[in-house]
Amino acid sequence: MTKDMTQGPPMKLISGFAVPLLFGFLFQQFYNLMDTLIVGKFLGVDALAAVGATGSLNFLTIGFCMGVCNGFAIPLAHRFGAGDYRGLRVFMMNAVYLAVIFSVVMTVLTVVFCRPVLQLMRTPDNIIDDSYCYIVIIFAGIPATYLYNLISGVIRSMGDSRTPVVFLTIASALNIVLDLVFILQFHLNVSGAALATVISQAVSGVGCLLYSLKKFEILHTEKEERKVSISCMKVLCGMGVPMGLQYSVTAVGSLVLQSAVNGLGSGAVAAMTAGSRIAMFFCCPFDALGSTMATYGGQNVGAGKMERISAGLKACSVLGTGYALLAFFILLLSGERLALFFVEGGETGIIRNVRLFLLGNGAFYIPLAFVNIVRFLIQGMGYSRFAILAGVFEMVARALVGFVFVPLFGFPAACFASPVAWVFADLFLFPAYVHVFRKTERMLLAGETL
Q1: What 8-state DSSP symbol labels residue 343?
Q2: pLDDT at 279 exceeding the cut of 90
Q3: What CA–CA distance (Å, rounded) separates 245 from 243?
Q4: Most confidently modeled of 142-146, 255-259, 439-443?
Q5: 30-46 burial by CB neighbour count: b if 16+ within 10 A, else e?
Q6: What was the pLDDT predicted at 106?
Q7: Closest CA to 62 of 116, 119, 143, 120
């Protein structure tokens, strides 16, 4: 059930690993879409705006959780690629201990401070109460987020991208059912959508944990392997915390942008919410390629096969560029029709803004492809601190648009905030990749361990 990515044609390995991941991301976005669709259709534009107003704050915290877990998986991929299965298990157990600590601390802090942060973000008065009800429940479910992302990261580090998708599919179906039950039958409004998300993720996390313990003998630990190791924790934090901070630093720019859009009124917030949800769906292949390159890079660096790193980057770049062109063409033809999934046909202003948002983002999907491919490859090679710097470039770009251009030009300026951020990140990532590749080559030639 595991996959060795240090042997065989890179294009075949990357595409074969990415396809199951793609379905996983699609299902994840599908139930996010269903949340938004059901809220928009059955609860109205204000409720849709209330959920959307929490988007950047949600990404700031949940993105940190995901980044940390992805970072924890990198040393595991290195050990798997090197054939050090005992080391893999030791790192896995210490990752579990750290995840428990992180999840408890983050849950307490976010639940306590989420309403003051919403106020600082200038969330409109007519939606702030619903925004709080939604996001406080999401934050209370942070332990479930850590559970699923940590276990799926461990499994992917061994080359299995299929098992997490199975449980994510189950969670997606459950989420849709619970959305309808909580909102239509129990009349829980936006809090029902949040409860459905948390419960579904908890189910997928527990299911993935139980299945992996039963099916993956390589993960069965002995007493000595379950001891706390400060040295392992330092390595894990050295990989995980920078990756988590990369998401959070990026989200700071999104918070500034969201605050600027909030100042334009609930209609603008609703348009950005709908556009963002659609765009996330179309960006799933980029996420899948990025996660694939993290595992591919980690295993091949662990095996000392640097020539495969370059070959993998070329193969993945071809896949990413081809999809970027296809996605823009689809958005060009169907942007307005996609907006109708979220709002009624009479909301012509919102529909027009959704289409503008989708086209502004879609025109820059090639830079986005390289942001994911190159950044995750660098992280998989063991240089996760560079992720923070890439995130800083994105943060500066989005904050600049939010502070300066949205007040001057309104919603159209917000549509190009992410494209500017992607270009800024690429300007840093390309030379960063050349640097870390050459540095890793020198380390391996000198016989140093990663």
Answers
A1: S
A2: no
A3: 5
A4: 142-146
A5: bbbbbbbbbbbeebebb
A6: 96
A7: 143
**Residue 5, in any domain of the structure:** no
Query: What is the pLDDT averaged over residues 260-288?
Result: 84
Query: Does 4 reside within a domain?
Result: no
How far is the CA of 262 from the CAs of 56, 159, 259, in angstroms?
12, 42, 5
- Model pLDDT for residues 51-68, shown as the tens digit of each residue: 878 877 887 888 889 889
E strand segments, 76-210:
none
Nearest to 261, CA basis, from 42, 68, 414? 414
The pair of structure tokens assigned to 393 is: 């470039």
Instruction: Please give the helix or strand (H or E) that residue 276 lies within, else none.
Output: helix 266-282
Domain annotation covers residue 80: yes
Q: Is the dihedral of CA 354, 321, 243, 21 positive or negative?
A: positive
Distance in angstroms (rounded) separating the CA atoms of residues 425 and 375:
9
**What pLDDT sits at residue 448?**
66
Separation of alpha carbons 12 and 256, rounded Å:
41
Residues 6+ apart with CB under 8 A from 229: 90, 94
> Can you list the pairs that 192-198 forms with residues at least 24 positions away whose Cβ atoms lie under 8 Å?
193/35, 193/38, 193/39, 193/51, 193/134, 194/133, 194/134, 194/135, 194/137, 194/138, 194/141, 195/137, 196/35, 197/31, 197/32, 197/35, 197/138, 197/141, 198/137, 198/138, 198/140, 198/141, 198/144
Confidence label for 141 from pLDDT (cuts 50, 70 and 90): very high
* pLDDT tens sequence across 302-358: 888 899 999 999 999 999 999 999 999 999 888 778 877 776 677 778 888 888 999
Asked whether residue 87 is assigned to any structural domain, the reply reads yes
Rg, Å, the chain Cα set: 21
Average pLDDT, the chain: 87
Taking each helix axis from N to C end, the angle separating 10-43 and 45-52, rounded to the nearest 10 degrees, works out to 140
What is the separation, in whole angstroms, between the first and last Cα of the chain?
26
Task: Note down the domain range covering 162.
Answer: 10-445
Q: How confident is the model at residue 252 (pLDDT cuts 50, 70, 90)?
A: confident
- Count of domains observed in the chain: 1
- Answer positive or negative: Cα dihedral of 138, 171, 365, 428: positive
State pLDDT tens for residues 83-133: 889 999 999 999 999 999 999 999 999 999 999 989 988 888 888 999 999
Asked if residues 47 and 39 have their Cβ atoms less than 8 Å apart, the reply is yes
Q: Alpha helices of 340-416 — where are they, by DSSP H? A: 348-362, 365-380, 385-400, 406-409, 411-414
Maximum pairwise Cα distance, the chain: 67
